[in-house]
Amino acid sequence: MLSARPLHLISAAGAALALTVLLALLGDALTRAAVARQGLAAWTDWHDGVSPWRWALRQPRDVIAGRAFGRGRLAAGADALALEGWGPVQVGLRLTHPAPLAQAPVLQLDLRRSRPWPLTLIVRPALAAPQCTAAAGMLPRRPGTMRVDLATLRWRCNGHPAPMPAQAAMLRLAFAPPQRATIALDWVRLRPPVSPRLEGPIPLARLRAAPRAPGTVPVVWLPAWFSSRLLAQRDALWRQHPAAVALPAGVVPHAVPQRRHAGLRADAAIGACALLMALGILPSLRRRVPRMTDALQPLLAMAPVLLIAFGVGDSQAPDLRSGMLILLALGYALLLARLEPANLRPWRLCGPASGASLPLLPLLPAAVLWLLQGRHAPQAIELARYLPWAALQQFLVLAVVARRLDAALGRRAAAVLAAAALFALGHAPNTALMLLAFAAELYWAWCFLRGGALLPVVLAHALCGTLLQAIASDGGWLRSLAIGARYLGGTG
What we know:
Elements: H1 4-47, E1 54-56, E2 69-75, E3 81-93, E4 106-113, E5 118-124, E6 132-138, E7 144-149, E8 155-157, E9 160-162, E10 170-175, E11 181-191, E12 197-203, E13 216-222, H2 227-240, E14 245-248, H3 262-280, H4 283-288, H5 290-309, H6 320-338, H7 363-373, H8 380-409, H9 412-425, H10 431-451, H11 455-471, H12 484-488
Parallel strand pairs: 12-13, 13-14
Antiparallel strand pairs: 1-11, 2-3, 3-10, 3-11, 4-7, 4-11, 5-6, 5-10, 6-8, 8-9
């Protein structure tokens, strides 16, 4: 008969394998569901005679770089974005992928406050393409709506007369105020002149490379299942057909209601998280159910990070909610560090020199991957930027979560598996990154709980992350090191 120790090792290995499969399935399912939601929302817009390209302007962060370019400045408003200008000034609109001007050639500006400023449109069909410009007339004297048919404008590309660009990878609004004044932009939209014809669903392999008629929008089924491959297929489709509706294979197009009050739901999730975290540190709760409290506190410590990974407070531009969640996680971790029960194993920043190199072992496979697939040489500045983020993650996962799980569960292997699984979930829905994080944290959590030194793990994490950043590419197996909505966002 096998002794107890080999049986424990076999059961731990089986649990690790099962968690690996579950994490892979979860990451791919989350990505597939997100692409389906995105595609169905776009199908609904086109079906209703509008387009998915619209911008609600409220805060400076709603535009490129969070500022105006030139002689002007932006200010947030309750229902519009104020632009004060005293000379030529430009505002760039955010594009996750090229906007199809051929299918949506009508630009609509909703203005809460207006002045008769000349408006010029600046477009690049591709980010490396020459700039195209067209004078679009004067803004209205009074608040209201201005519509511009882009196809009727006199376009000039690279200084020469040209037809309207078929797509826009960059889109800027250029204003020329004759004197200091302020306008307020509410919505900017690209609209089709008539409801387009939705063609499909068409399997990706059968999609013709020829451009579609201006009034046609293809609906395309993407066959890939693996997360990064599915997103790579979607982005490649958009580069060829910017107006295309991308859906995972088998998803039947149908109208979906517009998502409303998303901000309120995100705020409610953050509020509920903060309330649960406060309840989790109540002394009365610990006196009544100490074992449950010891297991609950590490889960609550990870809750803000998991909310970011699952899309709350994370957008194409980091916002106030994501900052609040990071501060909430850090504050709760520091509070738990001050309220440590006596049965927790002590930890230290640096351990004995003899064991300091153990956490660096994952650097070997990371270095091999970089030698085989690296796109550029890692930079010292990248390591410097990554180091604080690695320190925050490992302090939270190891010094706070893993030690409490070790004490609460009473089994080292269970604590290591649980800490690594939570760390991997914090990288959702990036499947490749989730699996890499799970494998690395299994080893790092074992090293930490064995020796109690945090700094070697932080250095190993930062070095591995810097190497992986040099590997990541839009079309590769590792798309990026992004999580949440930024991982799902399109690339142009």
